[in-house]
Amino acid sequence: MKRSLIVFSSLFLGLILISSCKKVEGPGGTSAIRGNVLGFTVDKVKPGDAEIINVTVKNGVDVEHGEYWLLNGPTNGELYYIWYNNPTWVSNGDPQLQGRTGIQVDFNYSDDNVTIAMNTIAALNSVITNDFVVDVYGDIITLTSKTNEDLVDADNGNMSFNVDIANQGDVDVLIPSSSISIVDERVYLIYGAGEVFNESSHTGADGVFTFDGLNPGKYRVYALSTDVNTGQKIPIYKSVEITEKGTIADAGTIDVIFE
Q: What CATH number was assigned to the domain covering residues 22-44+176-257?
């Protein structure tokens, strides 16, 4: 019985010692994390262009029932086909192109080109005003994209209409300035798999930050950057691991955009 008690006591003591020696992420150690913060400003060096499309229509006698031309909206926008319906035909001329929204334009063979253009404008304005500004001059329809980007080119489909890209769209060009070290920038440290920061520090005159007195384990550091589209602050994360006691782990450079 005494022997069993001695063995049990030894095992219990061993478990206590193992538990007390196990270190997890957090304070109380002899290691550190070091890194630096670099900042950029962003300048709009070249405003983008809206895509402009000119469509020259023809007389009704040159249009066939069910013919169509193709129009493509901005990124993630609608794809369209504009098709022409002659009410004197009993058959349904809708080509029903898959993946595209159909816009029906009614016409008669006796219509002149200006009438065809005005009928087309009326049909377009009921559908595409979220994507394009629509204008007409005589028999020329002008479609101006509401976004600055290069659209998939419009096409005359199976029609004799002239569909011309008068101005190719282009996005705004944003480039970062040369980097500078950010002084007195607040940097945050998260222990392990946490989501909320556990401590914070500030960068010195050279943009360097340090977190001291840490145990081996996995950490994340972050600083706040400015979203160039919304102006909101967003975190820029860096993952870093301390593998041994008494060492300094390098978090590298955190690049942030500031106003």
A: 2.60.40.10
Instruction: Give dist(CA 246, CA 66) in Å, integer.
Output: 78
One of 3.40.1350, 3.30.310, 3.90.1160, 2.60.120 is the CATH number of 48-171, namely 3.90.1160
DSSP calls for the chain: -HHHHHHHHHHHHHHHHHHHH---SSEEEEEEEEEEEEEE-EEEEE--B--EEEEE---GGG--TT-EEEEE-STTS-EEEEEEE-TT-SS------TTSEEEEEE--TT--HHHHHHHHHHHHHTT-TTTEEEEEETTEEEEEESS-S-PPPPB-TTS--EEEEEE--B--EEEE---EEPTT-EEEEEETT-SS--EEEE--TTSEEEEEEE-SEEEEEEEEEE-TTT--EEEEEEEEEE-STT-EEEEEEEEEE--
Q: Are strands 27-40 and 248-257 parallel, antiparallel or unpaired?
A: parallel
Q: What is the pLDDT of residues 89-112, one digit of tens each?
A: 989 999 999 999 999 999 999 999
Note the pLDDT tens digit of each residue in 179-201.
Answer: 788 899 999 999 999 999 999 99
